[in-house]
Amino acid sequence: MCNLYNLTTNQQAIRDFVALTHDSIGNLEPILDAYPDRPAPVVRNTDGGLELAALTWGMPTPVEHLKSPDAPDIGVTNVRKTWIRHWQQWLGVEHRCVVPATAFSEYGQTPDPVTKRKPLYWFALDQTQPLFFFAGIWTRWEGTRGSNRTPRPGDHELFAFLTTDANDVVKPIHPKAMPVILTRSDEVEVWLTADWRDAKTLQRPLPAGRLEVVEKPAAPAG
Length: 222
What we know:
Blueprint: E1 5-7, H1 11-17, E2 22-23, E3 32-34, E4 39-46, E5 49-57, E6 78-79, H2 85-88, E7 96-101, E8 103-107, E9 120-124, E10 132-146, E11 151-164, E12 178-179, E13 181-182, H3 185-193, H4 196-199, E14 212-215
Organism: Paracoccus aminovorans
InterPro entries: SRAP, SRAP-like
Pfam family, one: SRAP
């Protein structure tokens, strides 16, 4: 599932999309490739309103899926099964966020015959790659992140975004799932403010006509 996405926009574009109350992120990089267990911008609910902040990508892993109870946690980047108790604790408004992006990637199913690597495809709303948001959740967490080689103990602020069934654009490349994408300000408002009964209706595939493959792997030489 999506473990790499891109953000190529500025803070003003994010402000124009959502009614930010404050911005604690500093200067946003003009081109950001977001990887798991690394900081990335999110818009989250706080007592003072909507905040643009940098959180670490990857929610706490269920204990039963860790190698050992005291093992460092690299986090869960994509959340699908929102009915599981582990995730239900973070579905309230106070733990919801939206994650700005302009494109996301998925690996194809068939490895390259020469490199043996699966090809990487990029998806966006159209070729101009306008801003959209993933529907996400976030939490504060105390523990050890990273790996046994590079552990990072302490207090962390973490996020992940929801996934759903793949639409007809994503399915031929990655049939299992796709991120939950919000493209309108009213969708963002519902996700950030509505009761879960209403907000969960947004966990659905984006219509195929509103998503494109914007970058394909290069064709093999010869």
